[in-house]
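New here. Your pick:
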Amino acid sequence: MKKYNVCVVGVGAVGIEMLRVLKQRNFPANEIRVFARSARDIEVDGHVYQVQAITPEGFNGVDFALFAGTEGEKGAAVTYAREAVKRGAVVIDNGADFRMDKDVPLVVPEVNARDAKKHKGIIANPNCSTIQMVVALWPIYKRAGIKRVIVTTLQASSGAGRAAVEQLKEEVTRISAAGFSSVNANIEQRSMPQQLGFNVFPHIGGFAEHGYTSEEWKLVRETHKIMHDDKIRVSATTVRVPVRTGHSESIYIETKKPISVDKVRSLLQKSGGIVVMDDPQKNLYPMPKDIEGRDETFIGRIRRDPFIKNGLWLWVVADNLRKGAATNAVQIAECLISR
């Protein structure tokens, strides 16, 4: 089997997960380089990686450059992606900088793997909340079409980075130590716009057109691009919840053609990358605590809307650091090397 030189740019939560996923999926890597702002050693699952200070020359000889990105911020890819491409690498960027570029494929392998082959050096990883949603929608879309999607996301702290996870930990610790005498943590510095410990708030990203946040618009625009259908009416509310890792989504869809719940369940069960957990009478449905560290998209609470002819509800959960970021990026590279 041919082997490839791979680099991972960034050693935050997503970068660490990319290194983990490359090993766990046995990606045929000849060499794995790790780049960050400064040189140092890091340890991931007992393996020590030498982190190099990033430079354009560091991409010489690299076949795949995986940029971890930081959601909501300009990533290293803005500065270094073109340099990597010039040196022969295919860039797979987890950040938002190239997603809506008409010359850059936006890829979820279970949905539009063929788009990856059309790249001009750069391929974009979609937003974590978009990835799990389109994985769930695609089998239904192919069979019955979709007119409308209304989604409420319940997004974990790790989606906002390591500092957000630390904020949640500190808030929960303070409130618990005080014996729940108050639910206000009153910490001086926080990375999120509100307290998250023992709280939820509907504010992810900056507020934009029509009062929707940038995160909500990502669900609209990225879904249209990935599924090649801008006629789907997508409306979203994104909510931050006090969960460490694992995004949950309550998704309402209206199909073009009638389709039974049993047929939907059967389609999803037969689709790659999906695990159906749907026996609510036995308290069986996906929960973030159970899917952390998994690569699949989990779906349950599949049910019809009794008041709308073609209305359906789905409950969808996935690990935002893995399928929502690192795993999807590695899967894209796997698509490119597969025959």
